[in-house]
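Researcher: Sequence recovery benchmark, item below. Answer with residues only.
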């Protein structure tokens, strides 16, 4: 299988090619210039492998949650490439990819569950929890919530233990903050989303029939859904 994966969800830009069991990646930390960087990185990983878009089985991209602008850049690029090459696209959870990357970087965490958290701004987190056996399936629904809500839900949950944290969103509940911390054995706030993890998570999804046509690809913002529900409640009063 040959899968090209893209990500610009947060403060990094990455492109990876999973080719017959091996994965090569271009990764750069960059808060801006994702639009300018992305296509040259695509050309580089394909060129290094001696492949063209037509040689791919599919593309994969982070479908969110994450920043509005970051998600739109990678998704728009994936749509354009997939449409031009007539290839399907596999949408992958950014939070699942974050957890997979942390598990790869921390082999000592392999026995526990990993809670992924991205900074959703407005004093909130995008977060969920992932286990080892089914890395694409969240153990709790992906959500955008206040830090205190997150900490309470984790304390009241019966999630597998030990529980580790991955991602910059956990800074809201770090020991240095003025909030009660989440019940995490350890947290890596420097964990980032990597396209290589998106590519590898996309493989079983592609084999399971989860790919979509380019025009069907949609980002998952979460915050828009929450805002809409709040508006509905207000109108119902």
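Model:
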């Amino acid at each position: 299988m040959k899968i090209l994966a893209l990500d610009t969800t947060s403060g990094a830009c990455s492109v990876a090619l999973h080719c017959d069991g091996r994965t090569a990646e271009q990764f750069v930390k960059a808060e801006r210039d994702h639009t300018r960087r992305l296509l040259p990185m695509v050309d580089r990983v394909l060129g290094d492998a001696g492949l063209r878009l037509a040689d791919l089985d599919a593309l994969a991209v982070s479908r969110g949650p994450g920043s509005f602008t970051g998600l739109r850049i990678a998704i728009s690029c994936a749509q354009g490439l997939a449409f031009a090459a007539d290839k399907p696209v596999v949408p992958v959870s950014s939070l699942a990819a974050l957890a997979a990357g942390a598990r790869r970087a921390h082999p000592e965490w392999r026995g526990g569950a990993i809670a992924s958290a991205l900074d959703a701004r407005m004093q909130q987190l995008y977060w969920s929890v992932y286990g080892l056996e089914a890395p694409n399936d969240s153990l709790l629904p992906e959500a955008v919530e206040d830090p205190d809500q997150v900490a309470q839900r984790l304390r009241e949950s019966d999630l597998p233990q030990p529980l580790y944290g991955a991602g910059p969103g956990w800074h809201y509940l770090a020991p240095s903050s003025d909030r009660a911390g989440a019940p995490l054995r350890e947290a890596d706030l420097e964990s980032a989303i990597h396209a290589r993890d998106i590519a590898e998570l996309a493989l079983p999804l592609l084999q399971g029939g989860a790919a979509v046509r380019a025009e069907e690809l949609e980002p998952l913002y979460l915050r828009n859904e929450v805002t809409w529900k709040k508006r509905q409640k207000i109108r119902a009063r």
